[in-house]
Design brief:
The complex is a heterodimer of chains A (352) and B (385). With 352 residues, chain A is an alpha+beta fold. Helices cover 28% and strands 22% of the residues of chain A. Chain A has 2 domains: 24-166, 60s Ribosomal Protein L30, Chain: A (2-Layer Sandwich); 182-339, Phosphoribosyl-aminoimidazole Synthetase, Chain A, domain 2 (Alpha-Beta Complex), CATH 3.90.650.10. The model of chain A is unreliable at 1-6 (pLDDT under 50). The chains are: A alpha+beta (352), B alpha/beta (385).
Chain lengths: 352, 385
């Protein structure tokens, strides 16, 4: 982390995690910032490159091609059923990295903290990030902290950048969908968006739905082992399944047909969407993959997905078709057909 | 989802579609206006047009609350937030409605006005309680469905002496709009929009009952079937309308019996009557000034009336020249008849109000219905036509 010191400041009193708050000095480059890094960040993110105390991380080059992705997180509220901004920041970037079919290795983290933010909340978030990174086997190797004046942030914003490695022979891209390919999804859609919506203070709305926030590296490893010829993976976050399918259709110059009755949606999510006037197709997910693969590989892939805890409810939901217009169409459970368009504006503010 | 999925059953839909096909006479058109945006949405989302014969024509009505709000009223709301420095609370869809000079509440918010989206009128009361130093205005819009919650908020504010709270009241009335559509001279021979019947309001009728439509049905000799918003409700209502039209019968019939009675919700009606009274006239987008078609806040609640509190003058503003919203709201034109539909005017960048809400005729057609039109066009191009 820039400005950090290898030695500890024995003369300072330890941070008052219980009652303390972020002050401007925590971003000022002085002893207060150094102490915050030592006692909070370095204590949690234990990696030799980080402990080194340099402005950068020096890492050994791995075998294979490198893959890199970045993601900024501004979710509100910061803590929600099934996760928090910390775990989300780790999961989100890992899931972006592994859409290459690769394996995540390292991560950077940048915090923008608002003056007055409780240190106890920050510690909770940092610990949650550390736990999520440990579980995913990804190392947080370098980072940065900035503090903005009260009223100029919303508690905490987090940027993470992930680096991973992808094996030779894998060639995954949103531009590789071909007519005849199968479209799969790794489980129930809409859980994250509904969980966030329900935990908003101004919505008196209670539900048992938890965010699906999860790192899917294990699932993806099993998938590419079972079907190395998979054409495309994408995590359907903002804009939901509808946005992801429209992106793939545009990138590949194809159409997509999905069947409403085959799309896994929890009854509670369906009901919440009905009540709030949302469409589950457009609601965000943070622990799902949309998959496009050759039809011949679909069964093997589904089997591999269902054998993994994060893919237990995987389903084949449709096909790639020839369509120069790049439309996504849905056969409704009612027996009609309709277009599944891009989302206009946004369904929910600040979901990730 | 219990009590919802039962009304979206594909097998029952096919049976109803068969009954409709059997009832239809092939020597005539059936021009049915679905009054509410909720019906427009159901027709588009479930592809109901595919399930009925071609000579049944759905004409979209004006029953989308944000669609009928005239530009002048949005301008006033923006003025409240920008020039009077109030916290303006509004329902979500309203934020995107285009105002004068390509402004909208959303753009005013980006420019620094304090505009907040709320989910209910009582949320706006909470904002007023939490900000005692600020004036808070609830931008109240909608038909009879959203009126009772506004009336309740007025009464709660008065009871609590919450004097930093007021309501900018834009509530409008359904039967008056129906009458306006039926009397508007649209055709060459000076008659109104040619309509054979109405798929009548759903949620509105839970509040006002089916009785208020009876004079309209009688005066213009049209059948009106009060219909639920689920796709099976709409199909069944189409069948009921067809039978009446074929028998040459007018009158009001109630398909939505699980929620609507003839008298409606008397408690809600009483709450509204206590806080609000009829306006002499009100401007509707598309219909112009319509007599006795909207409500204003009664003198007893005058302290909570934003129009009086901030002395808001009303300026009528004409629609964008190329925009056909007015004709679409009256049922004279269809969305695809508009030159800017899908080009200059899209849900991401609406020129006209019908493109804003998912219930608006243009937005519904853009989102769900465009497929066939564009596919046909695509094939024509591919064939070298």
């Amino acid at each position: 982390m820039s400005g950090q010191r290898a030695g500890k400041h024995a003369h300072l009193r330890p941070l008052d995690i219980r009652r303390g708050r972020i002050e401007m000095s925590h971003g000022g480059g002085g002893r207060a910032m150094s102490q915050l890094i030592d006692e909070l960040f370095q204590a949690a993110f234990d990696h030799p490159a980080l402990q080194q105390g340099d402005d950068c991380a020096v890492l050994d080059r791995p075998e294979g091609r490198l893959v890199m992705a970045t993601d900024s997180h501004v979710v509100s509220p910061l803590f929600f059923p099934g996760g928090d901004i910390g775990s989300l920041a780790v999961h989100g970037t890992i899931n972006d990295v592994i859409t290459s079919g690769g394996r995540p290795l390292w991560m950077t983290v940048g915090f923008i903290l608002e003056e007055g933010f409780p240190l106890a909340d920050l510690k909770r978030i940092v610990d949650s990030m550390a736990a999520a990174a440990l579980e995913a086997g990804i190392a947080i190797v370098t980072g940065d902290t900035k503090v903005v004046e009260r009223g100029h942030g919303d508690g905490v914003f987090i940027n993470t950048t992930g680096v991973g490695v992808v094996a030779e022979g894998l060639d995954l891209s949103g531009s590789r969908a071909r007519p005849g390919d199968a479209v799969l999804v790794s489980g129930f859609i809409g859980d994250h968006g509904v969980a966030i919506m329900a935990s908003r203070e101004n919505l008196e709305f209670s539900t048992s739905i938890r965010s699906d926030s999860a790192a899917l590296h294990g699932l993806v490893a099993a998938m590419v082992a079972a079907a190395p010829d998979v054409h495309c993976l994408r995590d359907p976050t903002r804009g939901g399944l509808a946005a992801t399918l429209n992106e793939i259709a545009r990138q590949s110059g194809v159409g997509v047909t999905i069947r409403e009755s085959d799309i896994p949606v929890r009854e509670e999510v369906d009901a919440a969407c009905e009540l709030l006037g949302l469409d589950p197709l457009y609601v965000a997910n943070e622990g799902k993959m949309v998959v496009v693969c050759p039809a011949a590989s679909a069964d093997a892939l589904l089997q591999a997905m269902r054998a993994h805890p994060h893919g237990r409810d995987a389903a084949r939901i449709g096909e790639i078709v020839e369509d120069p217009n790049g439309f996504v169409e849905m056969e409704t459970a009612f027996g009609g057909r309709r277009k599944v368009d891009w989302i206009a504006g946004e369904q929910l503010p600040r979901i990730c | 989802m219990k009590y919802i999925n039962e009304f979206r059953d594909g097998k029952l839909a096919r049976e109803l579609a068969a009954a409709i096909a059997a009832e239809v006479r092939h020597d005539r058109m059936y021009r049915l206006m679905e009054f509410c945006g909720g019906h427009t949405h159901a027709i588009s989302r479930y592809g109901l047009r595919d399930l009925v014969p071609d000579n049944i024509q759905f004409i979209h009505g004006p029953g989308c609350p944000v669609c009928v709000l005239p530009i002048g009223r949005i301008d006033s709301a923006i003025e409240l937030a920008r020039d009077h420095g109030v916290i303006l609370c509004s329902y979500g869809d309203t934020l995107r409605v285009p105002a004068s000079e390509r402004m909208s509440l959303l753009r005013a918010k980006a420019d620094g006005a304090d505009i907040r989206m709320v989910y209910s009128s009582t949320d706006a009361l909470e904002v007023a309680r939490a900000n005692p130093q600020r004036e808070v205005v609830f931008f109240a819009i909608g038909f009879e469905t959203t009126t009772p919650p506004t009336a309740v908020a007025l009464q709660m504010a008065q009871a609590a002496g919450l004097h930093n709270f007021s309501v900018f009241c834009n509530h409008v009335l359904t039967p008056a709009a129906m009458e306006a559509i039926l009397t508007a001279p649209e055709t060459d021979d000076g008659g109104g929009v040619p309509l054979d019947g109405f798929i009548g309001p759903s949620h509105v009728s839970t509040v006002i009952g089916s009785r208020p439509y009876e004079p309209v049905a009688e005066k213009f000799y049209k059948p009106i079937v009060i219909s639920g918003f689920e796709p099976l409700d709409v199909l069944q209502s189409v069948l009921m309308l067809l039978r009446r039209i074929n028998r040459g019968e007018a009158g009001v019939e109630n398909q939505f019996t699980r929620a609507v009675t003839r008298e409606g919700n008397r408690k809600a009606q009483a709450v509204v009557a206590k806080a609000m009274e009829m306006r002499d006239a009100f401007e509707w987008r598309g219909l112009g000034q319509v007599a006795h078609s909207a409500l204003r806040i009664r003198d007893e609640f005058g302290a909570f009336d934003a129009e009086r509190k901030f002395d808001l003058p009303y300026r009528s503003v004409p629609d964008h020249k190329a925009c056909e919203c007015a004709a679409i709201l009256r049922g004279v034109k269809a969305p695809q008849d508009c030159k800017v539909f899908g080009t200059a005017c899209t849900p991401d960048n609406p020129l006209g109000s019908c493109m804003v809400s998912a219930e608006g005729a243009c937005a519904a057609h853009y989102t769900y219905g465009r497929l066939e039109v564009e596919r046909d066009r695509g094939q024509a191009v591919a064939a070298g036509a």
